[in-house]
From TrEMBL:
Belongs to the group II decarboxylase family. PANTHER family: 3,4-DIHYDROXYPHENYLACETALDEHYDE SYNTHASE, GROUP II PYRIDOXAL-5-PHOSPHATE DECARBOXYLASE. It comes from Pyrocoelia pectoralis. Pfam families: Pyridoxal_deC. This is Dopa decarboxylase. The keyword Lyase applies. InterPro entries: Aromatic_deC, PyrdxlP-dep_de-COase, PyrdxlP-dep_Trfase, PyrdxlP-dep_Trfase_major, PyrdxlP-dep_Trfase_small. One of its GO terms (cellular component) is cytoplasm. GO terms for molecular function: aromatic-L-amino-acid decarboxylase activity; pyridoxal phosphate binding. Its cofactor is pyridoxal 5'-phosphate. One of its GO terms (biological process) is carboxylic acid metabolic process.
């Protein structure tokens, strides 16, 4: 493919994406395919001779698009938002177009320096403590990771090795391997699965502490640390969540941070979703205690209009990260050490794209005010949904925070399970389940940039219709319609 063909192909694809977006309001959230359908439509071997781009693009229409789950449809309410916007798509395109590897300064000076600047812009916009910013004086700094999973893993590795090193320095003769077995990390029973995974990769025991109203309290943490220390365990990190995946609950950051400070334990905050809301000053009280943290991750690829992948991670002292996972090679050595930041040593892979371009485009196109409007609109839409649920006495709202509401049909879980199955089988709407204690609930997240209040009203009307017509058979003896409970 030469440059002139690339121009044609690229323009056709941009038109294609624009058409897709125009079609989204009328699309069902879920595709009508069975497992294996897509794979069967594809040849089993790669073509020997190259094909024309028009042939390839046709197959996007005929094979791929019918198999897409439409995360950007206003009928999609599963998980959390998957950040997306036109400036961000174009930023991605440019990053791919430049094809640079910005793992050290020389790999792309613009890549490193734009990222440093974007992390400062974003850190300031979110009201994070000054010590997190990239600056000449302090050891703090921010980096763009691919995902919250990577951010948590890197923080955990840094905390693990900081703890090991300080213990070994204090207690001469202690073997690293013996100590490692005794390390323990803490999080809550509501924390995202990626935290357990990070602990598995880092070979650190993780305790998922009991929550009250889905929040981790300082007293629970304190009791556990006390017991563990008495039994010879060595606490190395507490990973709190601001905005849990299940209900968007926020752990008591100030209580937890205080304990971490007293006990000299690394304090990390996973704010993958809710962290973006800190761009609105009225939500900053959720973040009380952040000034005690050692690291924090926020994912603009969730709730700040930036396409996956873009997780912003800040460290109070990035030198612990480098001590833990940093490596040196002659072929990686360049002027960057003089500049101060070799980003490959702040992350798990070596290679890295310039992810900061899409973040830059979003921050400049929307401005802080535009992003604030977007976040506030999502919160207002979720509130509207909550009000609609409260109009029907068969239902109860089980949690509501920011852009996420969870609800259920009162009484038996099996009713709500059946309702969710009925909705998903129909395919127009998509919701994901959760369990709050013993209650099975449906999570309703406001996900897309194009969701309007009439979409919320339609979604609620559809829930009522599904419920009215749903036949239920709880114990095999009764078949009826849920008109009242
Ligand atoms: C609170 C929280 N933390 C972490 C994650 C993992 O995010 P990622 O896919 O970026 O690793 C999620 C995903 O939904 C989340 O909700």
């Amino acid at each position: 493919m030469d440059v002139s063909e690339f121009r044609e192909f690229g323009k056709a694809v941009v038109d294609h994406i624009a058409d897709y977006w125009e079609s989204l309001p009328n699309r069902h959230a879920l595709p009508v395919v069975k497992p294996g359908d897509i794979a069967k439509s594809l040849p089993s071997k790669a073509p020997v001779k190259g094909e024309h781009w028009e042939e390839i693009l046709k197959d996007i229409d005929s094979i791929i698009q019918p198999g897409l789950t439409h995360w950007q449809s206003p009928n999609f309410h599963g998980y959390f938002p998957s950040g997306h916007s036109f400036p961000s798509i174009v930023g991605e395109l440019l990053t791919a177009g430049f094809g640079c590897m910005a793992f050290n300064w020389m790999g792309s000076p613009a890549g490193t320096e734009l990222e440093i600047t974007m992390m400062n812009w974003l850190g300031q916009a979110l009201g994070l403590p000054q010590y997190f910013l990239n600056c000449d004086e302090g050891p703090g700094g921010g980096v763009i990771h691919g995902s919250a999973s990577e951010a948590v893993l890197v923080a955990l590795l840094a905390a693990r090795d900081k703890t090991l090193n300080s213990f070994i320095n204090k207690q001469n003769g202690v073997r690293r391997s013996n100590l490692r077995e005794n390390l323990v990390a803490y999080t809550s029973d509501q924390a995202n699965s990626c935290i357990e995974k990070a602990a598995k990769i880092a070979s650190v025991t993780i305790k998922q502490l009991k929550t009250h109203n889905c929040q981790l309290r300082g007293s629970t943490l304190r009791d556990e640390i006390f017991k563990d220390k008495a039994n010879g365990f060595v606490p190395c990190i507490v990973i709190a969540t601001m905005g849990t995946t299940g209900t968007c609950a926020c752990d008591c950051l100030d209580e937890i941070g205080q304990i971490c400070k007293e006990e000299n334990i690394w304090f990390h905050i996973d704010a993958a979703y809710a962290g973006s809301a800190m761009i609105c000053p009225e939500y900053r009280p959720f973040m009380g205690g952040v000034e005690l943290s050692d690291s924090i991750n926020v994912s603009p690829h969730k709730w700040m209009l930036v396409n996956y992948d873009c997780t912003a991670t800040w460290f109070r002292d990035h030198r612990y990260v480098i001590d833990s996972i940093g490596v040196k090679r002659v072929y990686l050595d360049d002027q960057s050490s003089e500049y101060g930041i070799d980003y490959h040593n702040w992350q798990t892979p070596l290679g890295r794209r310039i992810r900061s371009i899409k973040l830059w485009f979003v921050l400049r196109s929307y401005g802080i005010e535009g992003i604030q409007r977007y976040i506030r609109n999502h919160v207002a839409l979720a509130k509207y949904f909550e009000q609609l649920v409260n109009t029907d006495s068969r239902f109860e709202v089980c949690s509501s925070c920011m852009g996420l509401v969870s609800f259920r049909l009162k009484r038996r879980n099996s009713l709500t399970e059946l309702l969710l199955k009925t909705i998903i089988d129909d395919g127009k709407y998509y919701y994901t389940p959760y369990k709050i204690g013993n209650k099975f609930v449906i999570r309703f997240a406001v996900c897309t940039r194009i969701t309007k209040s009439e979409d919320i009203k339609n979604a609620w009307n559809a829930i009522v219709d599904y419920t009215n017509t749903m036949q239920w058979d709880l114990n095999g003896t009764h078949n009826g319609f849920i008109k009242s409970i």
